Amino acid sequence: MNTLECKGIVKKFGSNEVLHGVDVTLEKGKIYGLIGRNGAGKTTLLSIASGQNPATAGEVDVDGLKVWDNQDALDKICFSRELNITAGNTGIGGLKVKEYLKAARTYFPGYDKSIEERLIKEFELDIKKRLSKLSKGMLSMVTIIVALASKSEYTFFDEPVAGLDVVARDTFYKILLEEFAESGRTFVISTHIIEEAADIFEEVLFLDKGNIILKENTQELVGRTVHVSGVSEEVDKIMEGKKTYHVETIGRSKAATVMLEPGEELRNTADITVQPMNLQQIFVAMCGKEA
Amino acid sequence: MNEFLSKEKSIYIQISEMIENDILRDILLEEEKVPSTNDLAKMYTINPATAAKGVNILVDSGVLYKKRGIGMFVSEGAKEMIMKRRKAEFYDNYVKAIVEEAISLGITRADLIKMIDEAK
Amino acid sequence: MTGFDRNLKYWFYYVSKSMLAIYAMIIGIVAVMSLLDGSNFIDTFTENIVLYLTMASAMSVIVFGFTNITVMFPVTVSMSSRRRTSLVAMNVAQQVIGLLSFTISFICALIKWPVLKEMLSLVIPAFLGVIGILFFLGNIVAFLSERFGRTVGMILYIVFVFFVVFLCTIGIGIVKNGKTFSMVMANPQAFAILFCAAGIILDVLGIVLVSAGLNKKEIKYC
Question: Which chain A residues contact residue C222 at CB under 8 A?
Answer without folding.
Answer: 83-87, 91-93
